[in-house]
Amino acid sequence: MFVLAANAFAQSAGNYPDKPIKIIVSFTAGGTTDILAREVANQMSIRWKVPVVVENKPGAAGNLGTEVVGRAAPDGYTLLANSIGPISINPTLFGNLAVNPQKALAPVALLGDVPNILVVPSSLGIKNWKEFLAYAKSHSGNLNYGSTGIGTTAHLISFLFAQKTGLDATHIPYKGAEATRDLVAGRLQFMFATAPSVVPLIKAGQLNAIAVSSKKRISAMPDLPTLNELGVDIATGAWFGLFAPEGTNPAIIKKLNETVVSILEEPAIKQKLLGLGADPIPMNVQEFTKFVRNDYLLWVPVVKASGAKPE
């Protein structure tokens, strides 16, 4: 019986995929997660000659899509494209999730890393890190920073930044793009925002960039220093990945990973993603699994210390 079951298991992996694949996106169409998922899905479909369909399941801060895939059959035909918030932050932020992504999902592949840029309104006249620190210290207790919502990376990176630099700053949560608009208007003093959302405003002279939160400088702004270079121990941002239900055949996960990695390594695809502000970083399954776990552990104390509560 065991031999027959093992043979069937191996055969199912060998024939994969032989029917349409669905990729659930936990956010609305048009966002970074959705864009990356559709690019990868299109390339998968071309290579495997089977339909790879993207379906948006937004809601509950990304938890709805996570729950759908976490409860799906672990056969490799229902996958999840998700980001740092639902995977690394929400398990601590919410505490009582119906489906815990750290337990119910198997990491497949990293799709892209999107850094956050520390930006200030150009009206402040702050051009660099030294000037920013001088301003921050002279306005201690009167600094406001914005975010796209409580518990988002924009909120928590800013909180972590204030903690590590000793800044006395107040968090002002917004719902989406209103935060950037208030920053441009000078109603906020600083903010950490994803590169794609602020690079056009920086180039237009409406915002000034001070530093980037990634481990390395970004190609779109090669002269912009990282926080690590400036002596601030922060090297994180927003990342996006592909997941399968826990219990999915490891051979299927390996095949998915190798396909995604080969897609990301294609020069045309890589340049397209870089143009979107997403840095494709190919990782094998073991590397991505370790990455996901370490990122979750990084944010647990930050979420708790921030006192953030679900909106």
From TrEMBL:
InterPro entries: BUG, Bug_dom1. Gene3D superfamilies: Bordetella uptake gene, domain 1, Periplasmic binding protein-like II. Belongs to the UPF0065 (bug) family. This is ABC transporter substrate-binding protein.
